[in-house]
């Protein structure tokens, strides 16, 4: 086992130096270095994380969300970055309020964000501005609600949907 | 039939872009997935990949029970390599608990993970070859897979749905004769693989269908978040077992096979070479398998022995509390990744300090690969969809969760 960043220079001090008050909070529980950044200007921070050679996070490993129902802001967007150059990981979190669940899309930075953000939209109903094709990915278009939200009952049933015309697809290219 | 005079003038079929929906249950593809294709003759102009047909709400269900009750669900993620999912989940929870399992347990987990990887690659290559007409290879590799299922059955009691790990260890120790059984199975597997190698690797038909087909550049592979054999086929040396060793993988001597072109043939070769490396790891682990317990000694995490449960009130209470309330995992969040058969299999877990997970997120390697598939197929031929899809090795249970 062992900590993910074992034997490597810690990232957090360097990140604090580079981004200052654009980082709201940080921790490194279990050795996972984590920063919470502001929603406004998050794309700039992530852009710098990708392009500055000392960070060089060239891979967006995962993008997901967590619903902290009852807290404000309600949602947290979680991005797991990885650098194939340095072999280090970073978790970047963005708080997303319930009233205005919209964040910048990371598709301009990493192609993996495309499907991962479609899944976050599908499961949590968080919208991504600038996403080229924000459709549901695992569920179907007629699905009502966003099932990974904590207020979505686990035994909820969905209405039956009329059969779709198999010839007419709404997919544009 | 409509009157030909009133029927609209037909377009020249060679100029028309045809829409074709391939799937979700296509006889030539294994896995339930739909390709919405725009075709110019036989060439794919655009491809929209539709997944989700096997969605069973893994992440929602994981929030309903205790931490250990998630283990059976993880079997059903990548059902071609269930042990790896079990191990990945257990390691993530153990990381948040801050515990390390005893060495014997680590070695057992390594052996079973590598056996799973063998089975997974055998599934991928066997099916891939069958779809290109090489049925013999499919049968040979199915025979090899059968050997591993027998071992799974001997170890865990089940062939596929093994549910073998628990937070803090594994359910039971190896049966006494397992070393000999695995050694015999590996010997047999090597013989079968030698046959497959002769049948495929230099086979003109196979090479022509695979080489320079389904090419993905290194930069795109990284940008798409692709890991595992698909990434290594483009020449990126990233294997979680080497880059961030877990479960004592740093004790073993093995190589990471790399490709260079990122086409289907390199993917095939990478997987084929990895199988040999997995067998090397298993042999080393069996040789040096330490003695000792297979679970941590902590009554807050691991169920007491049955002798204790039926013989003492403390044991009974301990058992009851652990079953009813579950292991209390400290409040917090963590991400732990292992090298799954298809790439980085990560679990991101959030605990609110209770006995139930607050959030369990799987980072499924083949979901991200499927995200790239539309681009990979674009510009290729319809007939190349099947081998490319085969080498992506999409496992519905893991991709759709």
Strand order of the largest sheet of chain A: 1-2-5-4-3
The CATH topology of chain B: Cytochrome-c3 Hydrogenase, chain B
**Count of distinct strands of chain A:** 7
Label the overall shape of chain B: globular
Just give the CATH class of one domain in chain A: Alpha Beta
**Could you report the average pLDDT of chain B, rounded to the nearest whole number?**
88
Please provide the ordered H/E string of secondary-structure elements of chain B.
EEEHHHHHEEHHHHHHHHEEEHHH
Gap from first CA to last CA of chain B: 46 Å
Give an account of the 3D structure:
The complex is a heterodimer of chains A (173) and B (401). Chain A has 173 residues and is of the alpha/beta class. Chain A has a domain at 12-129: NADH:ubiquinone oxidoreductase Nqo5 subunit (Beta Polymerase, domain 2, 2-Layer Sandwich), CATH 3.30.460.80. Helices cover 17% and strands 23% of the residues of chain A. In chain A, strands 1-2-5-4-3 form a 5-stranded mixed beta sheet. Chain A has a two-stranded parallel sheet with strand order 6-7. Chain A is globular and about 55 Å long. Mean pLDDT of chain A is 85; it is low at 1-5. With 401 residues, chain B is an alpha+beta fold. Chain B has one domain: Cytochrome-c3 Hydrogenase, chain B (Orthogonal Bundle), CATH 1.10.645. Chain B has 16 helices and 8 strands. Chain B has helices at residues 58-62, 71-75, 82-97, 103-131, 135-156, 178-200, 204-210, 218-223, 229-232, 240-243, 264-287, 306-311, 313-325, 365-377, 385-392, 396-400; strands at residues 17-22, 34-40, 43-50, 165-166, 169-170, 332-340, 343-351, 357-363. In chain B, the strands form 3 sheets. In chain B, strands 1-2-3 form a 3-stranded antiparallel beta sheet. In chain B, strands 6-7-8 form a 3-stranded antiparallel beta sheet. In chain B, strands 4-5 form a two-stranded antiparallel sheet. In chain B, a hairpin with a 2-residue loop joins strand 6 and strand 7. In chain B, helix 3 (82-97) runs antiparallel to helix 4 (103-131). Chain B is globular. The mean pLDDT of chain B is 88. At the A-B interface, strand 3 and helix 3 of A face strand 3, helix 1, helix 3, helix 8 and strand 6 of B.
